[in-house]
Amino acid sequence: MEKTPRVIVEPPDSRGLRAVSVGGTTVGSAWSPSGLRKVLRQLGCPESIDLEDRRVIVWREAGSEVWPDRTWRRRTATALMMAGLILSMVLLTVVGRPDAMGALTFAQRMTGFLFILSGAVQGLAALAALDYEGKRQFRYSGAVVLVGALIALITESIFLFTWLEEREPTLYFPAYLLLFAWSLWALWRLLKGQVWRAIPHPKKFATGVALSGLLASTNFAYSAVYQPTSAPFYVTLTAKFGTPHTDPTRPFIHVPLTFRVENTGKVPAYLLVDKYLVYGRSAEYSKDDEGLKDWKTALESGKDAELHVARSDRKTISAGQFEGPGYWLNPGEGHVKEKVIQIPRSVGYDLLEATLAVVAMRMDRGKIDLRQLQLAHPSWQKKEGRFHCAECIDMLTHEGEIRHNNNIINVTRKPRYVTVLWQGTREEFDYSYAISSYKMDFAKFPDLKELRREIERESDRYGVESRSTSTRVSVAALMASL
C-alpha cells in the first residue's frame, strides 16, 4: 500500500464537481463517491479501497461526505442546453436549404449557405454542451456553446423582427419565439459561469461575433430588399399589323398580326397573365366639326376626342391569351405570337386596333408553383369544389402558391397565392389578378378592404408590374394595298 500514489481530491467547484489529481497532475474528476471509485480503478486501485484511508487519499478542504452535486438539476440543464442548440440547428438548416439550393441570385444563395453553416456550428455546440455541462475535459467547449447561443440569439431576433412586420400566425412562430427565450436563458447561464475566462482573447472574440451578426443582418437586408429592387426589370411589348391578303374563294380579307413579348431587363420574369384584343372601330363623322365638344365623355371612357368624329364605336373582332398564366422569360428572351385576323371585304370599320397586355413578376423575388397556376378551374363545374360558384358570372380561375426567394420571409408569413380570374361576355373578356394570403374560395370571401390593401402590398413586395401596348391601322390603307 506504501507504493500506491497518494490521490488528492480537490474541494468541489461551483457545480459540485471535485477534481482528482496525482503528483500535481489532474487525472480525473467526480460528482460522487461512485465516480471517485471509477477514477481510482483507472489508476490501479482495488475496487474495495477505503475512501477514508488518509495514506492513499487526501481530502482538501472538504471531506468524503461533501458532494454538493444535484444530479437532476445538472442533467436537466444539459438536456435543455442541447435541445435548444439542436432545435436551432434544425430550424436554420430548414430555413437556409431552399435558398442555398435554389435561389436565383448569388447573395440569396450566400444567405442560405450562411444559415446552413450556422446550423452546423449549432450542431458542434450541442456536442460541446455535453462536455461543458459535464466534466469540461475540453478547454474551449464553453466558448463553442457561447458561439452557438449567440448565433441563436441573432437569428431568432431576425426572425422575430421580420415576423413583427406582419404579425401573422405561422407554424414556425412558436419555434423561433421559444428559441429566442432559450437563447437569453443560455447566455445568462454561460455568462454567469464566466465562460469567457477560457477564451484566449475575449475582446477579439466578442468583436468577431458582433461582426458576424452584423454581416448576417446586412446580407439578409441586401438579398431580401436591396438587390431585388436595384436590378433593372423591363418587359417590352410590341404589336404590328402586316400586309393583308384577299381570300380567293370567300369574301374575306386576311390581315396578319404579330405580337411579341420580350424581357429586356436584367432579371428573369414570370408572366402571370396576358391577353390580346383586336377591335374594329366605326366612326360617325361630324359635319360641323364639333367632335371635340364631348371631350370629357371621351376621356372618361378612355377613348380619343377627335374634331371630325362625333361618335365612335368599336367591336371586338378577336380576343385570347398570348400564352396563358405561368410561363417565364429569361433576360434577352422573347416570345412571338402570329395571328391572322379575318374581316369581311364589305366591312364598315375605318380602323383596326390591336392591344396586348401582360402582368409580369420578378423571378428574383419569388418562385411560383407553375403546375398549380397553369390549371384552369371553371366556376360553372361543381367538381371544382371551392372554385365552383353557381351565383357568379362564368369565370375561369387559376391559382398557384408562391414562395419568396428569401426563405426567412416564408417562415415568418402565411402562405401566399397568385390568383388569376378570367371573366367576360360575348363582346369582350378581361382578367384580374392578385397576390395575397387568401386562398380562393367563392363560399368564404375575406374582408375586401383589407384584401385590397394586402394585394397592393404583396404586389409591391414581389415586384409585379403591368405592361400594355396597342397599334392601329387604317382599313382604307389596307384595302388600298390589296
Structural topology:
Layout: E1 7-9, E2 18-22, E3 25-30, H1 33-42, E4 57-59, H2 71-102, H3 106-132, H4 141-166, H5 173-192, H6 202-230, E5 235-241, E6 245-246, E7 252-263, E8 269-285, H7 295-300, E9 309-320, E10 327-329, E11 334-344, E12 351-362, E13 366-368, H8 370-373, E14 377-378, E15 395-404, H9 407-411, E16 416-424, E17 429-436, H10 448-461, E18 464-474, H11 475-480
Parallel strand pairs: 1-4
Antiparallel strand pairs: 1-2, 2-3, 5-7, 6-7, 7-11, 8-9, 8-10, 8-12, 12-18, 13-15, 14-15, 15-16, 16-17
Helix pairs in contact: 2-3, 2-5, 3-4, 3-6, 4-5
Structure in words:
The structure is a single chain. The chain is α+β, with helices and mostly antiparallel strands and 482 residues long. It has four domains: 7-59, no CATH class; 73-230, no CATH class; 236-358 and 468-482, Immunoglobulin-like (Sandwich), CATH 2.60.40; 366-462, no CATH class. It has eleven helices and 18 strands. The chain has helices spanning 33-42, 71-102, 106-132, 141-166, 173-192, 202-230, 295-300, 370-373, 407-411, 448-461, 475-480; strands at 7-9, 18-22, 25-30, 57-59, 235-241, 245-246, 252-263, 269-285, 309-320, 327-329, 334-344, 351-362, 366-368, 377-378, 395-404, 416-424, 429-436, 464-474. The strands form four sheets. Strands 8, 9, 10, 12 and 18 form a five-stranded antiparallel sheet that branches. A hairpin with an 8-residue loop joins strand 1 and strand 2. Helix 2 runs antiparallel to helix 3, helix 2 packs across helix 5 (173-192) and helix 3 (106-132) crosses helix 4. The radius of gyration is 37 Å and the shape is rod-shaped. The N and C termini lie far apart (124 Å). The mean pLDDT is 83.
